[in-house]
């Protein structure tokens, strides 16, 4: 499929077999590894901490995107960048000063992504889209795996694509949640 990249997520892995999971991903055709960091405040679940990031750094061979579903992510960017992270994606809803947070990510020599919850308008992107490497559209409500794609996401993808083209941005569109073989073509 034209211009399609795949990120493998470890959110649902059995952590007793994390090394084997990472070896499988390393051998796969996935383009990068997607790691969801959840704090129990911005979203209702808690995910990984330092031991998992250390294991990922040790066993993983793919580029790593950290998807920070945490309140005030700017407090932890320096910490996360120490684990060989290639891209850090923060939620627009969690950043009081989005431009400043994006600049902080870039200053850590990481690619910068911004994620949007399903109900959040893309309006704020007009002034920052050219500085972003990725815009992540949540197609489910964040914090829980295994949900079905919210159909309105398809309209939002088209809207985002128009904005990227109109602003001559190089940002990639990432769709997170509910992506399956039966809907990937439509996405």
Please give the structural blueprint.
Layout: E1 7-9, H1 18-27, E2 32-38, H2 50-59, E3 64-69, H3 77-81, E4 87-91, H4 98-107, E5 111-116, E6 134-138, H5 153-166, E7 172-176
Parallel strand pairs: 1-2, 2-3, 3-4, 4-5, 5-6, 6-7
EC number: 5.1.3.1
InterPro entries: Aldolase_TIM (IPR013785), Ribul_P_3_epim (IPR026019), Ribul_P_3_epim-like (IPR000056), RibuloseP-bd_barrel (IPR011060)
Binding site for substrate: 9, 67, 143-146, 178
Runs in which pLDDT lies below 50 for 5 or more consecutive residues are: none
Helix content: 25-40%
**Broad shape:** globular
The strand line-up of the biggest sheet is: 1-2-3-4-5-6-7
Helix-strand pattern: EHEHEHEHEEHE
What structural class should be given to the helix and strand makeup? alpha/beta
Structural features, described:
This protein is α/β, with parallel strands linked by helices and 187 residues long. The protein has a single domain, classed as Aldolase class I (TIM Barrel, Alpha-Beta Barrel). The chain is 26% helix and 20% strand. It contains five helices and seven strands; from the N terminus they run βαβαβαβαββαβ. Strands 1-2-3-4-5-6-7 form a seven-stranded parallel beta sheet. Helix 1 (18-27) packs across helix 2. The mean pLDDT is 91. GO terms for molecular function: D-ribulose-phosphate 3-epimerase activity; metal ion binding. A divalent metal cation binds at residues 34, 36, 67, 176. InterPro entries: Aldolase_TIM, Ribul_P_3_epim, Ribul_P_3_epim-like, RibuloseP-bd_barrel. It catalyses: D-ribulose 5-phosphate = D-xylulose 5-phosphate.
């Amino acid at each position: 499929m034209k211009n399609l990249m795949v990120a493998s997520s470890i959110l649902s892995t059995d952590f007793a077999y994390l090394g084997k999971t990472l070896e499988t991903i390393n051998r796969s055709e996935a383009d990068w590894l997607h790691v969801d960091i959840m704090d129990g405040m911005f979203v209702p679940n808690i995910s990984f901490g330092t031991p998992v990031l250390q294991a990922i750094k040790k066993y993983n061979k793919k580029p790593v995107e950290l998807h920070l579903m945490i309140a005030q992510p700017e407090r932890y960017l320096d910490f996360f960048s120490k684990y060989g992270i290639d891209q850090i994606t923060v939620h627009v809803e969690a950043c009081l000063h989005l431009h400043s947070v994006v600049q902080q990510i870039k200053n850590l020599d990481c690619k910068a992504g911004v994620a949007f919850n399903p109900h959040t308008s893309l309006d704020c992107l007009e002034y920052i889209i050219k500085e972003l490497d990725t815009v992540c559209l949540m197609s489910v409500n964040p914090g829980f795996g295994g949900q079905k794609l919210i159909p309105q996401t398809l309209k939002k993808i088209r809207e985002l694509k128009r904005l990227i083209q109109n602003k001559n941005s190089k940002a990639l569109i990432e769709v997170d949640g509910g992506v399956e073989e039966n809907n990937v073509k439509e996405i």
